[in-house]
Amino acid sequence: MHSVAPTSIADTHDSPDVSSTVLTTPDRSASCSPALDEKLNAPGSASSNKSLHSSRSREEPISSPRPIRSICCVGAGYVGGPTAAVLALKNPAIKVTVVDRDERRIRRWNSRHLPIYEPGLAEVVRIARDGLGDVSKVEPQEGSRTPNLFFSTDVSRCISEADAVLIAVNTPTKMRGTGKGCATDMTSFEAVAAEVVRHARDGTIIVEKSTVPCRTAQMIQEMIHIQRPGARFEILSNPEFLAAGTAVQDLICPDRIIIGSAPTPEGLEAAQALAEVYASWIERSRIITTNVWSSELAKLVANSMLAQRLSSINSISALCEATGAEVNEVSRAIGADTRLGSKFLRAGIGFGGSCFKKDVLSLVYLAESLGLYEVGAYWRQVVEMNEYQRDRFAARVIKRLNSTLVTKKICVLGYAFKKNTSDTREAPALEIIKTLLDENPREIAIFDPCCNPLVIEEEIRALQKYGPPLLSDDGGCVKIYSDAYAACADSNAILLVTEFDEFMNFPIPAARPAAQAASPAKTALAGVELSKLQLNEEPGCSLDCPDCQMGTGYGDDGANDADTLPKKQVDWAKISSSMKSPKWLFDGRCVIDVPKMEALGIRVEAIGSSGWSV
Ligand code: UGA
């Protein structure tokens, strides 16, 4: 999910600032995956892990577990915030507190303008955080509810008051030291785990929400042995499966919930206590319990397999371009096989986002550190194919434009890594722009309907740190637009880089009314319309709220919170009339209706098809 400076608790999409939930790390040096390797390879480690690892029947009945009445979620970012909000919404009797040491971020969660954008999230927070109706009456009226979602910076106190603590902080790829560029950077996670172990009361359930390397629970276990010998904590792995742009929906209607625990009676009891929390809205058959290691590994494998599917279809798109086959047709044909299924088969310029690359690389590192080099090489190829796909697209653009961009204006439509998000982490757009810049174009125009132009500018400016100026304001050729027509005007070529509905050249089925009917907030409330609820007054914003300052509805991550506004598709005839001939459109997402576009006088080159010919 989301990104950049304001959102750098990145990969677990957590807080906006990497350090925000990192409570104490004396020299900020701790990075755990290599440390985990040592544990994995340490003689005797298997026996010391036995209680977490050994397999035992999960079907045995468990005496009813002590119910969870309060949850503390550490990390107010893209995972922690939405997860806590939906847990609170669905469990009005449970007090859910989200903590983060970033005061500004917490202030924003406690205000009208939330710090992150996800469709439906604002509504869920409104209900759980602000409550419904007048609960001060002795006989509260039907439909009223007391607030049960809180946001705080008092990390240690909130940890000490919780029955269960969810760790939902950033676990990006290590950028230095052992395992650099591949291993998981556990700095934030380790620091928070230590804080939890220090402050949690005896009997607290510790839950790994962040995506972590397999065997991380062992690290927490060892912290407990050292810091709190004799204390009883159960460690559960309960990975998140939220995707950017659909996080609330993914939480409300998940395919599955995975809960990994020790196979001991206490471990199974803790797993059941957490399962009860989810069972308040998710059918039991979707709640899968496993051992901790399976759960930790399952998250990495889920993302790696999805990424592998994309690299597979993207590799086939290259074959299609060379043979005359159409990748969309191939996808449809193979996706109809129920053994394969139709999802994640849309070829494109390669996957982006904060998760896939980092999780595949984490799997590579795990394999290599266990001496399984062939396994590592197999998965590494998934990432390499992704880079090849992106570079191939940029090369095709340059080649089609007669191998020179000098004097030409190129318009990039879309900058975020996928539609309906402002998340730009690992977005292929930036790498493509870098390649095009080497060709010295007259202008590179960028427009994204969801990203705040100021955020894009910041990212481009970061590129020019050690090189020549890039932004037009600084004397370069990159210009960020807040209007699609202005961005496209006078361009020689348009690159469709993100598949926003706004850019489609055919009617998008049931734009508003139906979309509203299926909106996460409504699903969450079983069909009740938010406007019909007796919503309580929401808290105001502080003076430094960027949304209030801009008056635009952009979040500080660049999100446009206007998801209630109808999506307005661009008028391609108008765009075509303002372009320079020959007019080129490079469809990096295989989403454009080619004959329709060509009827407007625009030549289309799409991923996975052989392209325009005279
Ligand atoms: C991914 C997983 O889908 C989530 O289940 C997981 O919880 C999350 O990572 C995480 O670990 O936090 P996300 O990266 O937010 O979610 O978004 P996806 O919808 O999976 O898209 C990833 C990339 O694949 C995007 O660049 C998207 O454009 C691309 N994609 C997706 C395609 O190119 N073609 C497709 O058919 C589908």
TrEMBL record:
Biased composition (Low complexity): 45-54
Catalytic activity: UDP-alpha-D-glucose + 2 NAD(+) + H2O = UDP-alpha-D-glucuronate + 2 NADH + 3 H(+)
Keywords, comma-separated and alphabetical: NAD, Oxidoreductase
Enzyme class: oxidoreductase
GO molecular function terms attached to this record: NAD binding; UDP-glucose 6-dehydrogenase activity
Start and end residues of each UDP-glucose/GDP-mannose dehydrogenase C-terminal domain: 411-520
Residues at the active site: C355 (nucleophile)
Keyword NAD: yes
Domain of life, source organism: Eukaryota
Compositional bias ranges of the Polar residues kind: 1-10, 17-32
Residues that hold substrate according to the record: K299, F344, L345, R346, A347, G348, G352, K418
A family per Pfam: UDPG_MGDP_dh_N
The name this protein goes by in its record: UDP-glucose 6-dehydrogenase
Species for this entry: Penicillium ucsense
